[in-house]
Design goal:
Elements (H helix, E strand, L loop, with lengths): L10 H11 L4 E4 L9 H11 L3 E5 L14 H15 L3 E4 L7 H5 L1 H12 L2 E5 L4 E3 L2 E3 L16 E4 H6 L4 H8 L3 E6 L25 H10 L5 E4 L10 H20 L12 E3 L5 E3 L25 E6 L2 E6 L22
Parallel strand pairs: 1-2, 2-3, 3-4, 4-7, 7-8, 8-9
Antiparallel strand pairs: 5-6, 10-11, 12-13
Amino acid sequence: MSTSCVFPRPADEAFRLARRVGYDGVEVMVTADRGSRDASLLRASVARWGLPVLSVHAPVLPAAHFALGRDQRDKLLRSAELAAALGAATVVVHPPFRWQRRIAARFVEVVRDVEAATGVELAVENMFPWRLGPLVADVYSPGHDPVDIDVEAATLDFSHAAVAGRDALELALALGPRLRHVHLCDGTVSARPGGLVDEHLVPGTGTQPVAEVLGHLATSGWGGAVVAEVHADRRGADEESRADVLRRTLSFARDALRAPRAAVGQATSTVATTASGTATTATPRPPSTMRPQATSTPIDVSRPCQSSVASEAQGATRQPMLTPISTATSRSGDPATGSSAR
């Protein structure tokens, strides 16, 4: 779960809610909150709530304009150093704005240099054009779409794809093996791209094929991470409302990943082990009649899907999963129970 789900609440509060709801770990969005950018404070949150930091999101929010310094290259480097200090393998980054000329001119080079210096992967997130009346502009450089950026790793955000008028399944297929990270949410696909309504809805409540994308990744041996990034702290939301949004998002992911769908237009004999320990075989599914068939590079099936073991009262069971979404159903969320997060 991303700490941005409950922004502007402190990062430690996000850890607490993630533990309560049952997530396996946290993506830290770096903000002005010291608890989101100080490694010692984050280690304290990890210890307090028993949840690891699985990824870091470089500062992008207006309120975090000066977080980790002013130089954009330094921000990326310090974000990666923070991730390395916390044992996180990925930093999510946005392509720079065109007016950030110095970093924009060398963005791909800087990404590669930071990866080489820290050993942390920088996954460039899909963004969207901006619209002002009849005018539409791509304000990002080298561009808003990582498909067209020469980097090794990318993040897919369903809400951003919706604003761009892009079908998320087509985007996932176009990214192919470069897709390493997913921001789980939903959005209403815009007929007029660039409307700047970045909804970050609970998955299944928008118009993106979220379940289909997750099912495709689960059946193709994908080894990346799925991170909830929904707006749980909307105006007037209380503790229970925030928890409900996060719980529904987690439940959606469990369902989509436990019952893998066939790859688009293909049959599959992939065998999944369910929470009960029984084996199920996915059945062939005809090509979708609602969306054009993608012709771009498929997801790399050579990378193993990560898994987690959930110990229950009647014994240990094993189930495919894409971290950090939890598959454990017996966690109470109370730190006093001693249950371990995965």
